[in-house]
Amino acid sequence: MPHIIVADPIHPDGLARLAEAPGVTFEHPGNAPAGTLAERLRHADGLIVRGTPVDEALLKGAERLRVVCRHGVGYDLCDVPALSKRGIAMMITPEANAASVAEHALMLMLTLARRVVPLSEGVRRGEWRVKGQSSTFELGGRSVLVIGFGRIGTRVARLCTAFNMHVMVHDPFIPAGTIRGAGYEAVDKRDEGLARADIVTVHIPANDKTRGSIDSAFLARMKQGAVLINTARGTLVDEAALEAALRSGPLAAAGVDVLKVEPMVKPPPMVALDNLIVTPHVAASTAEGLRRMALDAAGNVVDYLAGTPDRDAIVNGEILQEAERSSATWPNARSTGV
């Protein structure tokens, strides 16, 4: 009988999904037996994590483990090569939080455009009238560069279009015709888009090629007075370079939901700047998003162990290919086609 461990708290509906699965036992933070997670994994076939790192040390005795699912889309806390070496599938919940994160990106754009935070703080101090001319601006008519045209980036582009913005997209992995067919301008050379965009919003994963890529050179190529939005990963950004760009140009402002070090132990110096908005990695954590991620994480693990996995949710696809070769049930693996 397959046994699943939920390492971190998830929405109750996700636990209910596990409880309804026939022939499955599971444990979660509310009913976990004594012992460390590593010890308990010795008897587990599946693992669901949110913020728990999955590394070599944790996996050492997990001989039965067949699948790990990350409650979300970022899996930088999981050692995928270590999982692949052991024949363990790494899964995510690809669609579950896309709408929530896209809305958060738009919220950051609007909040910075209309200077909501300083104006609200002024009212609290008793300041009702704005001295001189307002420095706020409309999103309509502005140009936005969407870097990364995946599940989140595509939604951000649609929302920006609804605000009558000119949408440019840079993604070297998506054919230009696909981008143009969706109604957006395809930008082949990223730097050209940076020079033209009033707002740059980043929606790419953190990996060996992208970590630290938003550096001083990237920021120097941005349009004077532009705004940067990052709801992806804090490790994409050189925070010292971002602070310098916010202090002396070219950036007018930035809105980020992520920092390089999470959870934050000590606020980085840039957090003190008035033209920066920081939220504590909550873009995906709407009531709806948390429920969808919990349901999808539970469903992914149950389906994988039943031999009917969702191909689109598997990060290390070579594991699925090996499983298909060794089991008659695995050809039932499905793809959503999204």
Structure, briefly:
The protein is α/β, with parallel strands linked by helices. It has 13 helices and twelve strands.
Structure description:
With 338 residues, the chain is α/β, with parallel strands linked by helices. Helix content is 35%, strand content 14%. The strands form two sheets. It has a seven-stranded parallel β-sheet, sandwiched between helices. A five-stranded parallel β-sheet has the order 2-1-3-4-5. Strand 7 (166-170), helix 8 and strand 8 form a beta-alpha-beta unit. Helix 1 (12-20) runs parallel beside helix 12. The radius of gyration is 22 Å and the shape is globular. The two termini are 32 Å apart.
Instruction: Give the tally of β-strands.
Output: 12
List the helices and strands in order.
EHEHEHEHEHHEHEHEHEHEHEEHH
Let me know the largest β-sheet.
7 strands, parallel
Structural class: alpha/beta
